[in-house]
Amino acid sequence: MDTPKDVAEKLQKRYQGGSVRVSILLDEVDSTMLFDALRILELHAKIYIQRIPVLQERKLRTDLQSSDFVYFDSFPSIRRRTLLYRTAVEYGDFTINHVLGCAHGCTYPCYAMNISKRYGRVENYDDWMRPRLVENALDLLRTEIPKYQSEMGFVHLSFMTDPFMYDPVNSRNNPWIENRTLKIIRKLNSHGIKCTVLTKSKYPVVLTEQEYSKENEYGITLVSLDTEFHSKYEPFSPPASERIDALRALHEAGLRTWASLEPFPTPNIVQQNLQEILDSVGFVDKIVFGKWNYSSLVNEFINLEAFYTDCSDEVIGFAKSKGIPYHIKKKTPRNTKETQSLFHELA
Ligand code: SF4
């Protein structure tokens, strides 16, 4: 009689490189056997399970349902006509978004999700949490790098998704997205183009290897160390402490690191000590600070301007005392154009 491992091998051979709905598999294999076999493959990152819906009663689903899709050594994807573009974010230069959607599902709410909904790229929050890779990203880079190289200072990954997105079901970085991001960084670096990277997840140590430029700058978003805040607003990304540890490992390997303290919450969202947050990333080479925009809750906070002015002053004081270059974002008190070329300058 077949074991779950036997069934897993048979399914893998049969559907290699393709995808199939769980309801189809249930016509062929007994449900308990099927779920055990798929769990083995999922744990070994041989399949990606696109759970539809991702959430049930606001909780992350980890089970299997007939509506789910199984991708065998493949990943949900879309095609794009262009990839590289000049960002409007003042400290950026060129940027790419090689993934649509983000499994972190931040509830600030996520600006990238709102824009994607507005342009009809995703339907709703649940749809946003089902990432899709831009399958022709590397092909596009082959033609776009020569086109823009003379005007490009650096390329940022990414403002509209997370390039090292976490897989909260399996408590690891999403291997397909991580691999694609690493390939893109290597491709850009091989043309002498520096990358700035920003994640709310954990950096892999492979970035310390030779093929990645030492000029790259690796950042994490960190706006709170509070665990309740994390569960409420950044529910499916790794805890802040794990992000910081992974970033510190890159720093200790001699790589350039930075921290983005944006969108920084007001005290009516979470009571916290900014100094503690700054201390937790006191080893970084650069700091960006920005207020929390697009939230009625933030606007309800009295003394909003004074609060953010004090925060900016604290960030500036901290950065100056440690000799860390910094930038205060547009719309945040103490913003000036003088510091926005933060990543254009060599550290
Ligand atoms: S990590 Fe960034 S892109 Fe992803 S959901 Fe959160 S805010 Fe949006």
The computed structural class is: alpha/beta
CATH top level of the largest domain?
Alpha Beta
What can be said about the biggest beta sheet?
8 strands, mixed
Give the proportion of residues in helices. Answer: 25-40%
Q: Strand-and-helix sequence, N→C?
A: HEHHEEEEEEEEHHEHEEEHEEHHEHEHHE
Each distinct ligand: iron/sulfur cluster
CATH superfamily membership of the largest domain: Aldolase class I
Order of strands, widest sheet: 7-8-11-14-15-16-17-18
Count of DSSP helices?
Answer: 12
- Looking at the structure, what is the overall shape? globular
Number of domains: 2
Radius of gyration: 21 Å
Oligomer: single chain
* Strand proportion: 15-25%
Find the count of extended strands (DSSP E, 2+ residues): 18
- Low-confidence parts: none
Mean pLDDT: 97
Q: N-to-C terminal Cα separation, in Å?
A: 62 Å
CATH topology of the largest domain: TIM Barrel
How are the elements arranged and paired?
Layout (H helix, E strand, L loop, with lengths): L3 H12 L3 E3 H7 L2 H13 L3 E4 L4 E2 L2 E2 L8 E4 L4 E2 L6 E2 L7 E3 L2 E2 L10 H8 L6 H4 L3 E3 L2 H12 L5 E4 L8 E2 L4 E2 L1 H16 L3 E6 L17 E5 L5 H7 L6 H13 L3 E9 L9 H7 L5 E6 L4 H4 L4 H19 L3 E3 L19
Parallel strand pairs: 6-10, 8-11, 11-14, 14-15, 15-16, 16-17, 17-18
Antiparallel strand pairs: 1-5, 2-5, 3-4, 7-8, 9-10, 12-13
Helix pairs in contact: 1-3, 6-7
Bound molecules: iron/sulfur cluster (SF4).
Iron/sulfur cluster (SF4) binds next to helix 4.
